[in-house]
Amino acid sequence: MTSNPMAGAVRRGRQYVPLLVTSVLLVLMFSVGSVQYDGFLSGQVLLNLLIDNAFLLVVAVGMTFVVLTGGIDLSVGAVVALSTMLSAWLVERHGWPPLLVIPLVLVVGTVAGFVMGWVIHSFEIQPFIVTLAGMFLARGLCYTISIDSISITDPTYTAFAQTRIPLPGDLFVSPSVLVAVGVVAVAFVVLHHTRLGRNVYALGGSEQSALLMGLPVARTKIAVYAVSGFCSSLGGVLLTFYMLSGYGLHAVGLELDAIAAVVIGGTLLTGGSGYLLGTVLGVLVLGLIQTLISFQGTLSSWWTRIVIGGLLFVFILLQRLIVGRRKV
Amino acid sequence: MPAQSAQQPVLEVRGIRKEFPGVVALDGVDFRLFPGEVHALMGENGAGKSTLIKVLTGVHPSDGGEVVLDGRPVRIAGPLQAQLAGISTVYQEVNLCPNLSVAENILIGREPRRFGLVHWSELRRRAAESVADLDLDIDVSAPLDSYSTAVQQLVAIVRAVEVSAKVLILDEPTSSLDREEVRQLFAVMRRLRDQGVAILFVSHFLDQVYEICDRMTVLLGGRLEGEYLTGELRQVDLVARMIGGEPSDPGEPSDSARREPAEGADAPPFLRADGLARSGAIEPYDLTIRSGEVVGLAGLLGSGRTEAARLLFGADHSTRGSVRIEGAEVSLRTPRTAISHGIAFCPEDRKTEGLIGELTVRENIVLALQAARGWTRPLSGTRQDEIALHWIRALGIRPGNPEALVRNLSGGNQQKVLLARWLITDPKLLILDEPTRGIDVGAKAEIQKLVADLAGDGMSVLFISAELEEVLRLCHRVGVLRDRRLVAELPNDGSLTPESIMATIASGAQS
């Protein structure tokens, strides 16, 4: 019954352990890289991490919403691919203006997410299977548009792709980074400071309780998949800028990278616990592994996958330990 | 202050009806609740209490009848509508989000906002205020799951009160609270009642009902039996009305149901635990259980009763100590080995640990037997039906339909199904963890009688219960636990009283 402030602080502190571990890991990896390789320790290497992974970051933000409710969205990679395909096709083959195409693509992704969320909620079907269907559907639709890659020569797209936003100290970022940072900022506020965000956490804690507490479970559940759909299509738009092409084989397996980033960022797959900042760190860890391996030079890029696999195991075990201890 | 019948009821239910597949849960029930009263909803398991509450809170839609709130017919479409209409509920199982802070749990859905964003400092301030209002000392910024079930229950009540409800429904709120917490809760209930809140109180503790309630409505088999003023209905008559029997039937046998062990006090021990312990869960304890003996474990919530029992069933690994069964040392590493040594365990939380609600009564009953036979030797359908019907009859499981889904049964009947499942395997030692918790007087008496009969036939029973009267009625010996330590083992030789056990718990005396 009685509580002392110290115990409360310890209790509160435990939730931050995964976040702390990921931060330490990131600093450690960066230090190792700086010691081992010349030219690693530069601001631009860090910024390149963001430039190369901006689209992944945006997709992972959407995934964080879904995973926090205890769900999963396997369709994100396919929705990204469909978004690149749709953009390239409309702009190149039909000559639509990019300012019309981009909002349209965002609407398509959001609606796709909304529909999946609606099916998951209304028919009480596992999100795994519904979004798996969504994944096949979206990936398949890419090929009905074109079997081959469509490259983009539209001046707006090329201009966007080549723009460098200078920062002090000879550093630069791409516009995509600004978009991604904006998405992270908005998502952070939504998750931690709005009713929708708190309902997401409540839903992940206990759906039954959330229902009995009178929270809008249906609306929240559908909303997270719509958010994930929106983030996927926005990620697709950013990838279109990055690749300057639309292709049905873009972003294959991206859903798994996004899930890996979310988990490494300390969000529990069972829902209810995790932070958006963790997802950002998770994406950076994934990017840093790639950078390290490219700096190393002799290892095949598949080592990235091996390291990510190993890390995932470690983090899942870590979560298990933390959650297990909390139950005793 | 008792309700005046001249007043208009704040909540009135007329001819409400609810059916589940195979069960008519409510059959034309009328019910009135006046402002400023504490009203008890009484009835046996399966009488329809839980269903009525779920209809009132919008969890289940009703199949007929009407609900009138403040003189206006209302249609309660869901929990949110119920809350908005002023009906708040605290359920038996805590229905909060364990991952959120206490403050959020109290206010989520109604968070104070500033510029459209959650106003965190205001949220914590208001939550702390509500907690302080009820004289509780809870750190509102700590996550809910860092607190015990009892405190979580109190938080649920704080939440319900915070809604400024006109009607507050408390469904078995006291079943996991200790005496001090019950006292606190009652103080809160009286304060709210005096403010004009109508409180619907459901409890199986008759003494508590008589202490706090002004009026009561009795349900019997899904129908309204009657509405009474608490002061005008003797406990004996109440029990009679609840079970639909004669007033002379006291429901709970006043005399001891306990019998002498079949083979006398010096029968060989069936099970002997020496210094058995699990670090962090239970300190080393010695315990001997003879054939035909009922050994009780008494102690407060969280004193280690369940933890001690789980070691004997292999549900948790012991970190030290040994167990001998019929003289031979055994290693109870898993429930499977325990079962093969003739040990059966009915867990406290029958919903999550024992029964599978989606399966039928028949399937649940044959589950353990089938597991013992192995999947290569399936039981035939007719044999399954025979077994199920036999136990449904033997234990008086209602409804007596083997194909009814277990989740549609009331708590007491679920408990009987769980018992039946283990009894078919003919165990030598039956571990019962709170078998009568949350079930009504009639079913309780039946289960107690069953336990006494089984022990009379030579079965050993380890009986865990928070109700000392029940422990004394059934057990030959009583182990007393306190702070995860077995502090005393008292022979129940007639001189033992609930008070003396409580004194032992309080003092923690070594025997």
UniProtKB/TrEMBL annotation, chain A:
InterPro entries: ABC_transp_permease
Record field: transmembrane: 16-33, 45-67, 74-91, 97-120, 127-152, 172-191, 222-243, 276-296, 302-323
PANTHER family hit by this protein: ABC TRANSPORTER PERMEASE PROTEIN YPHD-RELATED-RELATED, INNER MEMBRANE ABC TRANSPORTER PERMEASE PROTEIN YJFF
Membrane topology recorded in Swiss-Prot or TrEMBL: Multi-pass membrane protein
Keywords of the record: Cell membrane, Membrane, Sugar transport, Transmembrane, Transmembrane helix, Transport
Keyword check for Transmembrane helix: yes
Protein name, UniProt field: Simple sugar transport system permease protein
Compartment annotation: Cell membrane
Pfam families: BPD_transp_2
UniProtKB/TrEMBL annotation, chain B:
GO molecular function, one term: ATP binding
Domain ABC transporter: 11-246, 265-508
Region named Disordered: 243-271
Superkingdom as given in the UniProt entry: Bacteria
Keyword ATP-binding: yes
Keywords: ATP-binding, Nucleotide-binding, Repeat, Sugar transport, Transport
SMART domains, per database record: AAA
Entries under PANTHER family matching the protein: CARBOHYDRATE TRANSPORT ATP-BINDING PROTEIN MG119-RELATED, GALACTOFURANOSE TRANSPORTER ATP-BINDING PROTEIN YTFR
Protein name per Swiss-Prot or TrEMBL: Simple sugar transport system ATP-binding protein
UniProt source species: Kitasatospora paracochleata
